[in-house]
């Protein structure tokens, strides 16, 4: 542990976490530089530095500032948000499979978006965010209600979440099949998950919504740290177990739903980012900055690779994250 002091204020920082945060920050900066300069149109060093001095050509400004920079910022913020949302669910369930997408909350968010866009006919970001949050919360309420009937345990929540996701996927398919071909095609394209058509006009409302939610993760995560001791021991330390579990669930769902409303489903980032961070920290928990940086780096790399492969970012995260999901699922099954 390192002790940092600034006047009367002091803080203890885990040395391993601090080192890995520095590594991920350097890697994220390098990945961001590559994302902004390397692509179908190559931006040379002189052209990139001219942006900083304000002497860049109009073409360079359009490529870097209007096309690539919003996409990069979306990937950074969304990756950090999904990583923290996954951390909340994994802390609640005490299971590496705990994730908003695995437990059906993303499917519920998709249902809410379909209702707002196809039934209500309001395809704006605010409408999608409201619909996604409402759908995700309904899915979470269903899972928690069913879990309470037989005892709330981590593995039981996972199984019920997978079943709820399958049910909601059927509902989503029905909504798409009964919609007009034009509306269904537009929604299906959004469901692929991508930052390709996003600009600063969508980024600013997303930041206004997501930044306060991410700030709330800090106090909630402090209470969740006691959950590693078990519900009974956490209760003896003064933590209200049920209230903390509900608050963390709602926060995780709303964070994931807000991100889904903007980019479409980006599965498995919330599953992988906290697990990688915990393995690097060599503890049952990892610091919030380490998880956020890991999620941001994963999504930036996935989005850049997807652009090169000319596929959607969501499809790439499914292909890569699906293999990791099968690995974790087999490991959890064999350990029981």
TrEMBL record:
Keywords for the protein's UniProt record, in alphabetical order: Cell membrane, Membrane, Transmembrane, Transmembrane helix, Transport
Q: Where in the cell is it found?
A: Cell membrane
Top-level taxonomic group: Bacteria
**Pfam families from the UniProt entry:** FecCD
Kindly give the InterPro entries that the UniProt entry links to this protein.
ABC_BtuC-like, ABC_transptr_permease_BtuC
Gene3D superfamilies assigned to the protein according to its UniProt record, in alphabetical order: ABC transporter involved in vitamin B12 uptake, BtuC
A GO term, aspect molecular function:
transmembrane transporter activity
A GO BP entry? siderophore-iron import into cell
- Bilayer disposition of the protein: Multi-pass membrane protein
Q: Looking at the UniProt record for this protein, which Gene Ontology cellular component terms does it annotate, in alphabetical order?
A: plasma membrane
Under the heading CDD domains, the entry gives:
TM_ABC_iron-siderophores_like
Residues that span the membrane, as ranges: 20-45, 72-90, 102-123, 129-148, 155-177, 207-225, 245-273, 308-330
Q: Which PANTHER family does the entry link to? A: FERRIC ENTEROBACTIN TRANSPORT SYSTEM PERMEASE PROTEIN (PTHR30472), FERRIC ENTEROBACTIN TRANSPORT SYSTEM PERMEASE PROTEIN FEPG (PTHR30472:SF24)
State the family named in the UniProt similarity comment for this chain. Belongs to the binding-protein-dependent transport system permease family. FecCD subfamily.
**Name of the protein described by the UniProt record:** Transport system permease protein
Look up and give the organism this protein is from.
Stackebrandtia nassauensis (strain DSM 44728 / CIP 108903 / NRRL B-16338 / NBRC 102104 / LLR-40K-21)
